[in-house]
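hey team, just a heads up i'm posting the complex here instead of the shared drive bc the drive is being weird again. everything in one block, sequence lines first with there labels, then the predicted structure for the whole assembly after. its two chains so it's a bit long, scroll down
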Amino acid sequence: MSEKYIARSSTIAARKLAGEMMVMNALNSTFFTLNEVATAIWQAADGHTPLREIVRRIICEQFDVDPEQAQADAEQFVSELSSRGILVVSDHPLTVEAQ
Amino acid sequence: MSSPASKQLVVEIGGFPISLFTEDEHFWDLSRHSYQDFLSAGPAKFKLQLQILRDRTMSDDEVRVWREGDYWRLERGDFCVRWNPNSGSGQVQQNPFTYSLDSVLRIVHSLILAEQGGFLLHAASAVCDGSAYLFSGVSGAGKTTMTRLAPADATLLTDEISYVRPGGSGYFGYGTPFVGELAKPGKNCSAPIRGLFFLEKGHENRIEMLSPSESVRRLMQNILFFAQDRVLVEKLFETACEFANQVPVRRLTFYPDSRVWDTIREFEGEPAHV
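-- predicted structure starts here --
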């Protein structure tokens, strides 16, 4: 299976307030609140760390979750945020925040 | 920027004086009357040159605001504006009614405010015991009702669009001349904002917490911003977060009689970050 790399879209404004991560797509003003796991993935989306490694090193370390289930959940989350223009997904490393 | 025949008046809303220049004496008189409590003698940092077109009619078309190089362009059936945010000046072509000038001023102020960390909000506001209280919600939620029920010693800032600016250690609400259902302009004064309440009518008076994200979501839904401009939206999102971080934002369920103001006066909430 090929690796997935994720990066935060440059059209997104994000802010953590009282423990809640809020993100807004500035292109269409859509607004989302991320849960703790989603926030950890969002913060780790640097474009060059493979998603599998983010799940293994961050999600499984910080949260008491089954690795396979965590990977499946992360892929679903990434796919959802990508469809809303919040994350960019690629099968090769992304060196800068994607447009 | 003005011709020798231009007459000038300075309208100061929210602490931002804007010089209005026009050669149309009748419109100058109308404007002076409309903004009589908001006229200023001081120098103005911002300038608008008005060209009055007598054959232009009223319009309720949707306003369009977009970037064109260094300029903002504002357009509706009854006006078109070219605004340069760097020089703080613009040219307006509009019909001979102050209703249209109200709209132009609202948009120009919303652009000025966005740069300063402030915003215009669909909300009524009033000053009571030295503090400003804002009441927001969808049409029919009770914004005008809250201002009608306000105690005699309260001062109306607006029953339609609240003017919010950061200042000192918090945010301030300012009075505006823009009228809503009450058809009564606000007072030209300001006060530190003690709370923002999103209104819902009910059988009792109750104030409830909103999560930070719900506060910001509702703020973003009610802030007036006319331009779908990425940089502007990002800025307003940051501003909404900062506001929710510093000012208590709550849901106010209220029964429409004057006792709701006792609940407001007793309110001692803290902002989200605490």
